[in-house]
Amino acid sequence: MLRTLLVGLVFSFVASAAPAAGQQPTPVWEYLGQRAACLAAQLPPLPQSADAWDKQRAELTGRLQTELGLPEREPMQATVLGCKSAGDLAIEDVAFHWAERVVACGTVIRLQQADGPQPAVVVTPDWLGHYTFRAYRSFVEQLARTGVLVLVIDDPRTGRRQSSYAGLYATAAAAGMPAAGIQVFDALRAFDYLQTRADVDAGKIGIAGLGEGALRAYLAAALEPRFQFVIAVAGTTTYQSLAQAVAAGHATANPSAFVSDILSWTDMDRLAACIVPRPLLIAGGAGRWPAEGEQAVLRTLRTLYALYQAEDRIRVVPGHVVDDMTPYADAVVPWLTAGVLPALKNSAVPPAACGEPAELDFRVMGYLQRRIENNVASRQGEPLTQATWTAHRQAIAAWLRSIVAGGASSVLDDQVVDTAESGDVVVEQLALGVDDAFRCPAVLVRPAAGGGKCAGIVLSHDDRQSYAAARITEAARRLAASGYWVIVPEHASVHPQSLQPLAAAETPRFYGDEAHRLYGPADAVGRPPLALRVAENLAAFRYLASRAEVDAAQIVLAGAGLGGVDACLAALLEERIAGVAAVDLTTWRDWSLHVAPGELHFFHVMPYLPSLLSVTDLDCAYAALAPRPSVIVRLTEGWPRSGFEQVAARSAAVYGLLQAEDALQTLGPRDLTDEREAAAPAGVRKQLLATARTLVPTPPTPGLVGTLDELKSRATVDSAAGLIWLVAEMSGYEQEFAGDGYRLQTWSFFNDNRDSQKGRALTPLIFRKQGAGYELTGIGKARTNAGTGLQTFEFEPTAGTDEVGDGYFFGWYDGDAAGSPNSGVVEFGPVPDARMTILTGDGQMSDQRVQLGRTYRTQSEFPRQYSIMAVSKKP
Fold this sequence. Notes:
Blueprint: H1 28-41, H2 50-68, E1 78-86, E2 89-99, E3 102-111, E4 118-124, H3 134-144, E5 149-153, H4 165-174, H5 179-194, E6 200-210, H6 212-223, E7 230-233, H7 239-247, H8 268-272, E8 280-283, H9 291-307, E9 314-317, H10 329-340, H11 364-380, H12 386-405, E10 415-422, E11 425-435, E12 438-447, E13 454-460, H13 470-481, E14 485-489, H14 516-524, H15 529-546, E15 550-560, H16 562-573, E16 579-583, H17 588-594, H18 618-623, E17 630-633, H19 641-657, E18 664-667, H20 674-679, H21 684-695, E19 704-705, E20 724-730, E21 733-734, E22 742-751, E23 761-770, E24 773-780, E25 783-784, E26 789-794, E27 797-800, E28 803-804, E29 808-813, E30 828-830, E31 835-840, E32 855-862, E33 864-866, E34 868-873
Parallel strand pairs: 4-5, 4-6, 6-7, 7-8, 8-9, 13-14, 13-15, 15-16, 16-17, 17-18
Antiparallel strand pairs: 1-2, 2-3, 3-5, 10-11, 11-12, 12-14, 19-34, 20-21, 20-29, 20-31, 22-26, 22-28, 22-34, 23-24, 23-25, 23-29, 24-27, 24-32, 30-33, 31-32
């Protein structure tokens, strides 16, 4: 299913021969690390006086406020959801107003019997942090027993606030409020809440953070000067060193630790120094990140604290524990209670006003989606005239150019790495100059025989593919055999034969989310993954246009899924591109509403650019190709159909406005026929139809899930017991039972592990998609594994129905639904263009209960192919 885009952009170039100039292209990881160092080196020197630093600090905090896209801090509303005793402590579950109607939540830990208002500390958590976790609980309870009230904020991806990990990151970035901004705003609103409590001394509030929470503590304290002190545990570093370490695979970091393009204007040492001369304790250094980052921060801090003659206000506590605050409590508590707090003045300000929230909406994702819809609605209300459209198109192009160019003033030369003839085509391996420090591998496929100038095609593959993927290889060779020169820029991919492999064989990830370590460094250095794909397409176009054998006026771009997105964006920036064919399209609005909530992990390069919706949506980007010829194709499966319809409607309106209606062809998957291509006039339009035909895969057979070819021995079975699996995607297609009026008859699986797994039970299930969930509509008879290989059974419903069709999916339960769970039976292996979903009724993975009529939600997804299929027929 091209809706789910497996991520791309981690590169190690592989070639069969050295480049002509004897120089290998720089792998993208090395490129990102070098770019981080280069940007950091270009930052201005530190000021030499306190006055000069005060001026620079004001500029930095103003820019930070803008880049984080923070909402207004509205009047506070809060409530205590529950309170319990823990010895001498009171533990309060609290909710406090965040923005609009959304509330944040956390845990207040305080003495039950306190003598007047207490000092307070806001704790910003590491990834998925919560007060009950070992990393925080002992530390904050020890601090609370000294008379300090502590508020531990719930991470926005856990507890009541639970949002999808990758989906929240992408939606926030495109909405103009990066995930780092969400968590910084959490801390600011936590401060506002503490200001309303009568048991808190408003003049003695500080902030502490662990790991990535330490970075956010620095940022929040920079923006809120009323935070009187900062405690950073195992997370002090620079973005330069963090980006370099993550890119090199020497450290891990949640992408939301980063701020987009931050290294173009500052680094964390200067942002941390915005707290000068307030007291600061750094414990555990950089934590899991390189020590060089901590040392750089300390050098800057000491230089600037010295300007205020306040060097004694920094305390550094060494240590090597990275995921726990407790080992540092013995140093933090006396520093705070004996040194810092007594030096602070008690506040005479009465508690701020605080109302009661009308509702408890914890969904940060909902706020971001409304922000996106508001941005879209504000543009849709404008009348469409040639003047307004021209101005909007120019604004889109200018903004996009600033994102894609990456600040490079020149590009490396292109190189031919290898050339080989294969039948009636010639295949060249290339290294294309993308900017002044990076080359992208590419494959050129051209006719073996000459004969005048040829038309050219840049074929942009989806991020689960590469040139070596059967569908792309076949498309390129088929087009070359028809006389076209076809170039496939090798965008980074999880495909095992990619020339820019995303996955590292030596460090496999459990979830297969190899983009996890790409997004942060790429965004931080101003090279977001989608933008880099666009730049690679432009490099491919330039190379084709430079070849004497190619007619530069007849070069088109084409792609499917994400490849269609970056093809359109590249054509928007390069007017010489003659036309675009894009298969399976959407808008960012529809992606964020319908797809992003299910993006649990970084499986994909996602179809967004940071702050995209501050300027436009993808429908306008596609429409901006007018009046050049364009073919857009809707697949039966794919991204939300509503998004495609918006793209089609916007494009039709703009092409009509420019009196170029005939240049736009909006087609369904079965409209790309021999007859249509033959009837098209010679030239670009025929070229686009021919290209689009090669990209539209053969749809799955109605009523069938899986294929016989996939029923084979594989390396692994699941070890967890009682999992509920749903077959979501195989071979790039969503696996619903297409068609109507079918009944599930037989199902098959493969297990040849003999006695070691013989006797395990398996129960077939039927689900109907209901919004974001799946309703269980049919339970088949449980079967016992014989361990002999291919095994086929009748479905034989024991509860519910055997009816299937559009919107219905096949799944299974590891165990007997009427009895006990057991470990898995069906064999599987990792495959980039398949997607399997674990469903849950209670939030857990294993030991699920199978209940007819219940709606289950997605718990996890994996890029795996299971040896299973289901066959339905009409009565």
